Fold this protein.
Amino acid sequence: MRPNNSTTPELFLNSQGRAMTRSGFRYILSKHANSAVQKLPSLEKKRISPHVLRHSCAMQTLKATHDIRKVSLWLGHADLRSTGIYLRADPEEKLESLLAVIPPNIKKGKFKAPDKLMAMLQTKK
């Protein structure tokens, strides 16, 4: 619980009421991740770190708002160009773009060479 008399503007505070350090946040996240693995063993194979949480939150913010400026502000980037990587990283948006340019008359299936082509290839030996 945040003390009422705290003058520290940071969101996460340590046990002394001061701004939590990166290593302090990593320690607490690791402690909770290890605890969660006990209940959900598949988490053991997942990468859980402050960096992964930051990027996951940025991707979810982009997906929810469709506004790269909000992501940039949330991440604290000084330049919007620093946030451009999130536009290139979203696989759903990539798939939507690809599906938009595929002609609708192309159907999945296996290619079967016409008899005429096969005959021509066999005579070229």
The chain has a mean pLDDT of 80. The chain is about 55% helix and 0% strand. Helices lie at 22-39, 50-65, 68-75, 85-89, 91-101, 115-123.
